[in-house]
Every structure is written in C-alpha cells, then in structure tokens.
Amino acid sequence: MLENFWFNVQYGLNHVLDVNGYDHVLFLLVLAVPYLFKDWKRVLLLVTTFTLGHTLSLVLSAYGIVSVNGKLVEFLIPVTILITAIYNVFTAGKKDKRSKIGLYFFSTLFFGLVHGLGFAREFKMFAGQSENKLELLVEFALGIEIAQIIIVFVVLFFGFLFQTIFRFSRRDWIMVLSAIVIGLIIPMLI
Prior knowledge:
190 residues, mainly alpha, 78% helix, 7 helices, 0% strand
C-alpha cells in the first residue's frame, strides 16, 4: 500500500518535473517571478490554487463528466503561460496589484483547469480501471504540489540571488524572465 502511495506521488512529481513537459515549469516560473521570499504564503496559496484546478479537471475527466478536444487544450496551455508572462511585463515595477486575491487567483484556478485537461487523457490511461481513482488523484496531486513548491522555491531563490547579490531591480528581474518565457512559448503556439 505504501509502495503504491509513493509510486503515485512520484508520478505527480515526474509530471511536473518532466523535461519534455516543461510548459508546467514555465507557467510556475511566470507565476512566481513577481514575488519575493517574504511573499511565500501568497505564492503557496497560488500554487495550491493551481494544483486544485489541475486536480479538479482530472477528477471531472476521470469520471467522464468532462471531455475536451486535446488539440484545443494543447493550444490553450501555452496561451495561459503567454497571458501570465505578458501580464508580468505590463505590471512589472507598478504598485503591487497582486495583494488582492480576486482575479489573479481565479485566473490561476482556471489555468490549472486547462493544464489538468491537457494531462487528462494520460491520467485516464494511468488510472485505468482502478477502483480508488479519488485516492489515486489525491496522491498524484500531492506529488504535483511537492514538485511545484520545489520549482517555486528555486524561482524565489534565484530572484533573491539576482536582486540582492547581482543588484537586478525587481522590475528588471520580472521583465527579463517573463520575456524569456514569452520567447520560449511563442514557438509552442505556432
């Protein structure tokens, strides 16, 4: 039983940390780049909101409630990353508008739903005829959450490093990383 638990958690970890599926990492990067270590609670809430959206779409798909065209979802995933990166570029250096929960959290939840739908087909094959799909989903979501926290911690650490040691301004840090992500995402859209 514990072996299955760890296998499912590792499957969630691998889903996020997969080199071939770096879109997840790119989204987390643009989600976390505007924040500092002192904002860790807000970042953790954002990441958890994204995981909830991701898991909800997997639940809806695993139980046959929702079925979406895979090509549409594969197009929408880079769109969500692009929107977040462009938002960062236009709001970098401005007064912190992220202090309000509202739209930023709801859009993160929605983007989590989209990203989860992108993985739904593979997850259905993974779950197969399992009787404990919900348990499997929770264990998988735990792995996703752990991997996302690791990525966000790395982003916050490098942000701290570049802003304190290398004296990047916060605005420049956000704009440079967001621009790099935009450059990586555009070919995915084409």
